[in-house]
Design goal:
- The protein has one domain: Jelly Rolls (Sandwich).
- Strands 1, 6, 8, 9, 10, 11, 12 and 16 form an 8-stranded antiparallel beta sheet that branches. A 7-stranded antiparallel beta sheet has the order 2-3-17-7-13-14-15, with no helix packed on it.
- Helices cover 0% and strands 62% of the residues.
- The protein contains no helices and 17 strands.
- The relative contact order is 0.30.
- The protein has 182 residues and is mainly beta.
């Protein structure tokens, strides 16, 4: 795996990746008037074709728009980020799909989970985002067209657009091929 915009502090230990995000970091492409941000932290590997990516994480989200989760990326104008985003003092499940410009969908969580699980699948050009608060029951929160390009970057991401930065711990990031059953 490699970093796009490494954070000021990070370490990998066993199946955990500890990250402290820098302040004023984000991935966002607003409508033609701007602004654009492409300076969030993204630790990724290349993936060809269809895949399933899983990770769980916990973070000390405390300031507006603090965010962490998974990212799937072709380039600076074509990507998906998903996970938890802290908005109006409440953690939300969040998904942003960017095709030149970013959109944003959020859903409030009843409480800040101790651990949060994400699963992202790719089948052809379609990305699906699932979340779980117990690691067993997953809920679909987004399906989107991204790209039919065969090679994408996939990995963990964190950013603190307005905040001073925050720590997050990712556990068990894995990437696998989908099982095909007839």
């Amino acid at each position: 795996m490699e970093w796009f915009n490494p954070p000021p502090e990070w370490r990998a230990e066993d199946d955990k990746i500890y990250v402290t995000s820098a302040p004023n970091t984000d991935f966002w492409r607003k409508q033609p008037e701007g602004p654009y941000a492409d300076n969030g932290h993204f630790y990724f590997q290349k993936a060809a074709g269809d895949f399933i990516a899983d990770v769980s994480f916990t973070g000390q989200f405390r300031e507006q728009y603090d965010q962490a989760g998974l990212m799937i990326r072709l380039d600076e104008a074509n990507w998906v980020k998903c996970g938890i985003e802290f908005y109006n003092e409440v953690p939300h499940v969040s998904a942003v799909v960017t095709k030149t410009y970013s959109d944003w969908s959020i859903q409030p969580l009843p409480a800040a989970p101790d651990d949060f699980w994400l699963r992202v699948t790719r089948e052809g050009a379609i990305i699906e985002v699932f979340y779980s608060t117990d690691g067993h029951e997953y809920h679909l929160i987004r399906q989107a067209y991204l790209t039919s390009e065969p090679l994408l970057d996939i990995g963990i991401m964190a950013a603190a657009p307005l905040g001073s930065g925050f720590p997050v711990v990712f556990t068990g990031f894995r990437l696998k091929a989908p099982s095909r059953s007839s």
